[in-house]
Amino acid sequence: MSIAPVETDAADAQRRGHLAALAVAEQIIWTSPVLPSGFAVTCYSFAPTPEVEFRFSRSAAGVEALARICGVAVSAGPHGDDDPRTYVSMTAVVDEVSVKAWTLLDAPSDAAVTS
Questions:
Q1: Cα–Cα distance between 101 and 55 in angstroms, integer?
Q2: Total domains present in the chain
Q3: What average pLDDT score do residues 81-101 get?
């Protein structure tokens, strides 16, 4: 028995999007000096623009390192109106894949973002 992929234009675009995002994730994991806690790949059939999102566990340094690799700035601010913890994030595009990274710090004093 063999398994053949469904060959439709939408499925092919989505499949290629997933593989492109995985390739970018692999490249980032190999080059980043701080490893993420996890990552997720998203590529919807109705909008096959791939995205990879990296989560760093209480590590502004991880987000900053990835931002330096991607040549973008880091943003930091309160997580919400009722939550003073600092949310640190960055967004970039690498090889036509949207790359996002974020962390949530435990306390405002942990927010020593250096970028």
A1: 6
A2: 1
A3: 94
* Residue 42 near residue 51, CB atoms below 8 Å: yes
The pTM assigned to this predicted structure is: 0.82
Cα-based angle 107, 81, 60 (whole degrees, multiple of 5): 35
Residue 115 lies in a domain: no
Query: Residue 2: inside a domain, yes or no?
Result: no
The percent of residues above 70 in pLDDT, for the chain, comes to: 85
What are the tokens at 65? 């390192």
Structure tokens at 98: 């949207």
Q: With residue 94 as reference, give the H or E element that holds it.
A: strand 83-94
Q: Is residue 90 part of a domain?
A: yes
Longest dimension (CA), the chain: 59
Beta bridge partners of 104: 87
Per residue in 26-68, pLDDT (tens digit) is: 999 999 999 999 999 999 888 768 999 999 999 999 999 999 9
The encoded tokens of residue 30 equal 């190999």
